[in-house]
Amino acid sequence: MVEEEHTQEFILEKECELRFEVESKGQKVELELKSGLAEVFGTELVKQKKYKFSNGSKVAVFTWHGCTLQLTGRTEVAYIAKETPMSIYSNCHQALEELRKKADEDDLPGPVVMIVGPRDVGKTTLCKILLNYAARMHRRPTYVDLDVTRAQICMPGCIGAIRVERQLNPAEGFHVQSPLTYHFGKLSPNDNIDHYNIAVTELAKHSKLADNKKTKFSGTIINTPAWVKGESEKLILHAIKSFKVDAVLVLDQERLYNELVKIKPESLKAILIPKSGGVVAKSQLQRDEIREIFIKEYFYGGRIPLYPHSFEVKWSDVNIFKIGAPLLPSSCMPVGMKVEDNSTKIVNITPSLSILHHVLCVTFAQSAETIFETNLAGFVVVTNVDVDRQCLTLLSPQPGPLMHNHLILSDLQFMDTH
Ligand code: ATP
Ligand code: MN
User: Quick one: which of 26, 79, 104, 152 is 20 to 30 A from 289 by CA?
Assistant: First the structure.
C-alpha cells in the first residue's frame, strides 16, 4: 500500500519557531517556505525551494517577521514555539560585528569567541547561527571545531578548522571541501590530554595564518566538546590561551559559568547565555550512528555518491605511527623521565591484526619528528591484514598508490560492509 503524502501547513507569528524531528529510518521530510522570511539556524530559506531533511534531523525554523511553512512527509514531532533565545543570539552576533568593523579599521585580527557548555545544550547550533549571520554580512570567519567526539567538519578523533564564506545548507550542515585537520585519534580529549593540547596548539598556530584581510578581521568561532566538571577546565584554559580567545559564551549552566569566572584570565570576557528549549538530547546510540554515517560518507559520499578505491600496500612501503606508549607507573620509569613523556611519544608500529578496520590518518609529515606540527592529507581504513604476504589492504578515496607513506593509527574503527 502506498502511503498518502502527509502535508502540514504552519503559520508563524514574528519571533516564533517551528521545531520538527525526522526520526524513523528512511524517512524524508520536505520543508518549504510559502511566504514571509524564515531561517534555519541562521541560514535564510529561499521561498518555494524544497529542503529535504533525512532521519536524525532535529530542526528549528525561526522567523523574525512571520511566515508560512509547509512540511511534507512524516515528522515525529512538529510544533511552534514562541519562546526562543534568538534575540540574545542575535545580540551576540551584533557585538561581534562591531568588533569586526573595528578590527577592519585598525587592521587587527577580528574577535575570537569560544562556545562552551555541558552536553546537548546547542553549542554546535549556536556556532552555526553565528557563522551563518557572519556569512550573511559577507564576512569570512574561521570555524574551529575542537570536539573530537562528534564529526562535523572532519573525521571523529580529529580537530580542524575551515573558513566559512557562504551560509550553510540547512539540510546538509557544513560544506567541507578541505578542512585544516590535526590528528588526535581518540574519541575523548581526556584519553590523552597532553596530546590533545599539542594538537590544539598546532591547530591554533596554523588556523591563524589568514590568507587575506577579510579572513583576518572576520575573526574565529570555536566549538568545544561538552564540558565535564573536573576534567575540562585544563583543556578549556589551554584552548583559550592557544587561540587568544577574547570572549567565552557559556551556554546554559551557571555552575560552569562560575567555574570559568574563577579560573579565566582577567582580560577574558565570559558571558552566560541561555540554551534553547528546543535542543534535543542525543542518545549514545545516535551519537555512534552520526559518527558511523560521517565515516561512510567520507568514502562513499552522501547525496552525491563517491566511489572509493581498494588497494594493497606492502608493509615495507609505509610507516605506521601511534601516539603514546603504554603508561608505566612512575616507579618503573627511568630516572628523570616523567609519565607525560610517554603519553606523547611517537611510536613506530609493525602492522598486525590489531589494526584491522582501524582508520589510519594520512599525514603530510615527511618524518616522525614533524608529525605533531603537520596537518593531515586524508584518511584510509585497513580492510585486510595479510601477515604471510606482509601486505595491507586499504580503503581510500583516492586510487593507489598512497601519495604520502606516513600514517597515524586512530582508535576509530569502520567496518566496510559494501
Ligand atoms: P553535544 O554536546 O553533543 O556537542 P551540542 O551542545 O552541540 O551537543 P547541538 O548539537 O547544537 O548541541 O544540538 C542538539 C540537537 O538539537 C541538534 O540535533 C540540533 O539540530 C537540535 N536543535 C538545536 N536547537 C534546536 C531548536 N531550537 N529546535 C529544535 N532542535 C534544535
Ligand atoms: Mn556539539
Answer: 79
